[in-house]
Amino acid sequence: MQKSVLKHLVVIFTLLFLLSGKSLFAEERKVSASYLYTLSNFTGIYPISWAKLDVDRTTDEVYVVALTKIKVFNETGMEIYTFNETGELG
After folding, report:
1. Per-residue DSSP letters for the chain?
2. pTM score, two decimals?
3. What is the pLDDT of residues 49-80, one digit of tens each?
């Protein structure tokens, strides 16, 4: 009887430890994110369902590659340049 109670306590404490999000092997790293602005062009908000984003901090520009289109946005989120609209680059 005592072994089964001890077994249940070990299982309960193990589950509590796992659910607490603590790990013995992972380093704790602080990550933060913030919302800066919505990407837009002169017709309104630019909807993106899937895209690869890259930021150039020296020019404060955001590059968006969505399918075959490549768009460049300035530091306020306004589209300033677009190319490959017809997919000629592949």
Report:
1. -HHHHHHHHHHHHHHHHHHTT--SSSPP-----------EETTEE---SS-EEEEETTTTEEEEEETTEEEEE-TTSBEEEEE-TT-TT-
2. 0.55
3. 788 888 888 998 888 888 788 889 998 889 99
